[in-house]
Specification:
- Helices cover about 40% and strands about 15% of the residues.
- Helix 9 links the parallel strand 6 and strand 7.
- The radius of gyration is 21 Å and the shape is globular.
- The chain binds pyridoxal-5'-phosphate.
- The site of pyridoxal-5'-phosphate has 13 residues, from helix 5 and helix 6.
Length: about 400
């Protein structure tokens, strides 16, 4: 089998970013990267804030946040009145968990592809309320149909109060059939939180098309927004029940404003976030998606080849737009959190490449992303140098 052709570069796109050129940034998925024009827009807003904090934090600020939220909700295909801006996906998930008013014996159901910090949040909420959490094992090789069947069989109607599904998973870079899982849970009367942290800007599915009770997604990953910009979309019947983590002055304004207003904070990232969406649109959303997915596929293949992974054993992403791919590491390498972190640091220091490394179910994986600022040569270089680094132990 031949290595897939890398995509044509998007001209000038790398110049939009201020990334250190001496490093290969192959992990857009963790913290994103903010285009310079977006950084500038946020800085101008900060200048305005510092010129007169009293005026900036006056009554007009809530209106400006509402305006930014409407813009972002339209981009996400979400109901602007049912969507709150929040700082990040972790916060959005915590808002949902703490608003559910779980009771002893209630169950929160997740899968073993879920995000670690959200799992910790579930554990704490269960410990606080007497609810229990259960994790469904889903094999990395499961097809969409198999995933739906595993979840269907795992639901306990009347007991399962929340199903949490990650649309595109963090440790395994697998696109889950989120809409089908929501439908299955709905048949059994189980509400669903879709953790779509990676969806905005990467995946074409709209919030409305997923149809979840609760949906949370980060705009600061693939939609080029400043960090600290995420959206929590809530279906109509639940909105009244949603409470912010911190009670502040807008508490009586109802959802979404009472969730958004979190006292004195820096709201400039949210106000500048539409510039990130504009930047993505000006490059061409579909073109960026196709480019990033093709580049990630290329990277997976060349690094996989270098590590001796036969192409058939490279984990499949589950859909065409996925711009994050996994490469299995040799058995025994980076199987624990600490070992994965140590390997990530060594790759960063010795190979000048930023990647994600995670241990999942006893196997270590490298996660590679594709983004408009990446070039095929960056993956080629990693592929040439990684085997020797791993051989050093
Ligand atoms: C699936 C998933 N959920 C939640 C998060 C957390 O995002 P944040 O740190 O912005 O809250 C991530 C981050 O990568 C993620 O991949």
């Amino acid at each position: 089998m031949t290595v897939p052709q890398p995509p044509e570069p998007i001209p000038g796109a790398r110049l939009l970013f201020s990334l250190d050129p001496s490093v290969s940034h192959l992990n857009h998925g963790s913290y994103g990267a903010v285009p310079v024009v977006v950084q500038r827009a946020q800085q101008r807003l900060r200048d305005e804030m510092e010129a007169n904090p009293m005026r900036f934090f006056g009554p007009g600020l809530v209106d400006r946040i509402t305006h930014a939220r409407r813009h972002l909700a339209a981009f996400l295909g979400a109901d602007p009145d049912g969507t709150a801006l929040v700082g990040n996906a972790t916060t959005g998930a915590a808002v949902v968990l703490q608003s559910l008013r779980l009771r002893p014996g209630d169950e929160v159901l997740t899968t073993d592809h879920g995000y670690g910090a959200v799992a910790l949040s579930v554990a704490r909420e269960c410990a606080r309320t007497g609810a229990v959490s259960r994790t469904l094992p889903v094999p990395l090789t499961a097809t969409d149909e198999e995933i739906v069947e595993i979840v269907r069989a795992g639901l306990r109607p009347g007991r399962t109060r929340l199903l949490i599904v990650d649309q595109l998973t963090s440790p395994t870079a697998r696109l889950f059939p989120a809409a089908a899982l929501v439908a299955v849970a709905r048949e059994q009367g189980v509400p669903v939180l879709v953790d779509a942290a990676h969806a905005p800007g990467m995946l074409p599915a709209t919030v409305a098309s997923v149809g979840a009770d609760f949906w949370v997604g980060n705009l600061h990953k693939w939609a080029y927004a400043p960090r600290g910009t995420a959206a929590l979309a809530v279906a109509e019947p639940w909105r009244e029940r949603i409470q912010p983590l911190v009670v502040s002055w807008e508490q009586d304004s109802g959802f979404p404003t009472r969730v958004e207003w979190q006292a004195t904070d820096d709201y400039t990232g949210w106000l500048a976030a539409p510039v990130g969406v504009f930047t993505l649109r000006s490059l061409g959303v579909d073109r960026v998606r196709a480019h990033n997915a093709a580049l990630a596929a290329y990277g997976q293949r060349v690094v996989g080849d270098a590590l001796g992974v036969v192409p058939e054993r490279l984990p499949a992403p589950g859909g065409p737009a996925v711009a994050m791919r996994l490469v299995p590491l040799p058995p025994g390498v980076a199987t624990t959190l600490d070992a994965a972190r140590a390997l990530r640091s060594r790759i960063a220091e010795r190979l000048a490449a930023e990647v994600s490394v995670a241990g999942w179910n006893g196997r270590g994986y490298l996660r590679l992303c594709g983004q408009v600022y990446n070039t095929p040569e960056e993956y080629d270089r990693l592929a040439v140098r990684l085997p020797a680094l791993l051989a050093q132990g």
